[in-house]
């Protein structure tokens, strides 16, 4: 167990290092930030000064080493556009995204999994067919399109919910959150719903196909033969057997929801990380992009680590050291 | 379906079609996919107006609702967009671009995935471990993020976008091909072929690859649909195709600004077309997956 954790931690570090190189190299290709920073009619002298100030005159590997050193000391650099510490900038935007993402994923699991189990348990019932059909819809329809529909119906036609922004926030532990006020919820509900529909369909379909397969196995036949009630079978056996793919998806989707927040935040003008990165790519704000990508990579590495550990807990075959 | 096998053997394809026909939803979906492909291929002959022939555009006809009859007597069944384009024609042309992107990206990713996945399974050892580790790491990042970053780095353009889509999707194919091929690699007939000995490339192309195709085909349907959706999303975010290649995503993005003022049709109808396309592909893929899943054949 301990050696497994240590090995996975080592792998995670290697992945992060490789990611930092890729991200740095990739972002370097996007464009010359000097053009953004310096007005075209600046003198050569000013140009040189600014370039030297941001370290853009050093060779690439030197810039990378500097970048890595600063990264390790927790200094993510200064945003070219906002002229403030990238760490501070991200810390400002992060709560909004986390709030949106968490609510969306929780909502998706709480609604999607029970629906999916039912659809897999009685695959021929009308309700199951409706659930599966709607889930195909949720799976197929692009997130941005659902966002537009939600805005059109609830904000434009019905006029009952706001189309963008975070609304009134209340501070908790020094961080502003929307979910603590009624107005905040009104602003939160459409983007959260938008973000969760895809995950909900995914959870639902996964739970349905898992349940369908599990119901055909001998485990269930024996459980029924033993006279265990159907409700207990579903809760004790089916849920447990389908939980492994569900946990994977829950973990991975938590991360991918962060990525999809990119789209939802853009549509609903939700002032979070996703909107920040879309804006920083258009304005070639290199430090922000690098920091965002590194943060997301780190997040994914951590999530994957947690998913692997959850496997060990859930799957006795792994626990007893088959790997 | 474990019916008694008829004496006269049916070709696998015919048997597949016989099972496929039983699901009416899937048949309709397949028909829709075929119809859309035909519509896209023959777009110039089907639509009432060439939406990118600037001479035929009348600015006074811009942003008219569905059913509007233009100044030249032309009926705009789905209305017109912000430049006076017939929306129906623009959508058919948009479908064409979206399909092209999705199919191209899907085909390239399929090819890369099949070759890399099968080779990795065949070669085994360190190379296999390395390739699969890279793929696993890549798969742990959401496709939308990868595609978004690559598209942003490469800039706008058809080739760039396809590259971004392939980069975001090839790993799914590699993993699937590897899984199927690794299972085949263990089987006796492959071992026998290798002990004869037959060349490695021959064994891969003649034995391992054909037997790994079913799961790859399932992944391909899903991935083409998601490539189309990704393309639309990227174009909507402004990092996809340039304005000269108006895919469905861009039509929707253009309509977004008019949504607030109640001119819903500019954004809605291209979206409906997009959804019909993606859903039809997914439903067809679902049926194929169920038919190829041995665990459901009981």
UniProtKB/TrEMBL annotation, chain A:
CDD domains hit by this protein: TM_PBP2
One annotated GO biological process: transmembrane transport
One cellular-component annotation, GO: plasma membrane
Keyword annotations from UniProtKB, A to Z: Cell membrane, Membrane, Transmembrane, Transmembrane helix, Transport
Any matching Pfam family: BPD_transp_1
TM ranges: 12-31, 100-121, 133-160, 172-193, 244-270, 290-314
Location within or outside the cell: Cell membrane
Name the UniProt record assigns to this protein: ABC transporter permease
Location of the ABC transmembrane type-1 domain: 94-311
Species in which this protein is naturally found: Paenirhodobacter populi
Record family assignment: Belongs to the binding-protein-dependent transport system permease family.
Alphabetized PANTHER family for the sequence: ABC TRANSPORTER PERMEASE PROTEIN (PTHR43163:SF2), DIPEPTIDE TRANSPORT SYSTEM PERMEASE PROTEIN DPPB-RELATED (PTHR43163)
Topological relation to the membrane, as annotated: Multi-pass membrane protein
TrEMBL record, chain B:
Limits of the ABC transmembrane type-1 domain: 95-285
Membrane topology: Multi-pass membrane protein
Cellular compartment(s): Cell membrane
Parts of the chain that traverse the membrane: 25-47, 103-123, 264-285
SUPFAM superfamilies according to UniProt: MetI-like (SSF161098)
Keywords: Cell membrane, Membrane, Transmembrane, Transmembrane helix, Transport
GO biological process, one term: transmembrane transport
Pfam families named among the record's database cross-references: BPD_transp_1, OppC_N
GO CC term (a single one): plasma membrane
Highest taxon above the source species: Bacteria
InterPro entries, alphabetized: BP-dependent_transpt_permease, MetI-like, MetI-like_sf, OppC_N
Main location class: membrane
Entry's family note: Belongs to the binding-protein-dependent transport system permease family.
Protein's name in the database: ABC transporter permease
Organism: Paenirhodobacter populi
